[in-house]
Amino acid sequence: MKTLVVLVLCSLAVICVISDADPDPQTAGDNPAQDGMFVERDEASTVVRQKRAAGQLSLVQLESLREVCEANLGCEHMMDTAGIIAAYTAYYGPIPY
C-alpha cells in the first residue's frame, strides 16, 4: 500500500513538472521587451526620480534634524533665524525622510 501511495505521488509530481515546463524555450528569449522587464528610458527616469510627497514631519523627525544641525555652529545660527528645515537643507542637503 505504501508503494502505491509513493508511486501515485511521484507520478503527480512528474505531471506537475511537465505541465509547468515551457514547450518552446527559444521563443521566450527572442524579444525581451515583451516580457515586461524593460521600460523606456523616460518611463524609468520618472519612476526612479519620484519625490516623496511634501508632508508634515513628526516631532521626532524634527528633533533628529535639530540634533544634527546643533553640531555645526553655522547651521545652528541659521536654525535660530530661518528655521530647522531651511538650515538643515542648506547645510546637509535634502531631508532623508
TrEMBL record:
Q: Which Pfam families match?
A: BGLAP_C
Supply one GO BP term.
osteoblast differentiation
Write the record's keywords in alphabetical order, separated by commas: Biomineralization, Calcium, Disulfide bond, Gamma-carboxyglutamic acid, Metal-binding, Secreted, Signal
Query: What range(s) does the Gla domain occupy?
Result: 60-93
Gene Ontology terms, MF aspect: calcium ion binding; hydroxyapatite binding; structural constituent of bone
Please list which residues make up the signal peptide: 1-21
Give compartment(s): Secreted
InterPro entries, sorted: BGLAP-like_C (IPR058704), GLA-like_dom_SF (IPR035972), GLA_domain (IPR000294), Osteocalcin (IPR039176)
- One cellular component term from this protein's GO annotations in UniProt: extracellular region
Q: Which SUPFAM superfamilies match?
A: GLA-domain
Q: What does this protein do?
A: The carboxylated form is one of the main organic components of the bone matrix, which constitutes 1-2% of the total bone protein. The carboxylated form binds strongly to apatite and calcium.
The family assignment reads: Belongs to the osteocalcin/matrix Gla protein family.
Q: What is this protein called?
A: Bone Gla protein
Q: Which organism is it from?
A: Amphiprion percula
